[in-house]
Task: structure prediction
Amino acid sequence: MDRAAPGEKSLTMYVKFFVGVISFISVLTFMSARYIFLNSAPENSVMGISHSLACPCECPMVLEDCHMSCGLEWKNLIGVKLKTGLVKQDITSYFYKRYGKEAMLTPAQRFAGKWYEVTRGGYPLREVVLFLLVVVVWTALLYTGLIMIVERFQSPAKKA
Result:
């Protein structure tokens, strides 16, 4: 029975813990950034265009997440403009020229708006559980892959 030196065993434990933390942080960062910044709706759709605009009222939401009357009015206006043949660039330019700062959405506002949506209970429990499940599965896969790489590159003298 092979026994590792006491120092080696704790080093391996620390390496595995570090790899686990790095795996979790990497997956959580990627999934969150993907959710916050990437648009899953087609470019020239109401949701695709509203992804680039801020909600017109005092709330910090992204227009695509707003279901209040002010946001619905803007989404309706986007739909009307799409039916007339305008494209995303034309419509966002219209909003920026007409409403100025109110319509602009910075990355910080996007993050704050998405965080507001999550923390105010705007998501069904099923979607939160699904998101966490995806994060756990991808973390486990990344962790397993990284551990296999670390073990493969350990010096042969330590393995014997």
Q: What stands out?
A: Helices lie at 6-37, 46-50, 69-83, 88-99, 107-119, 125-152, 156-159.
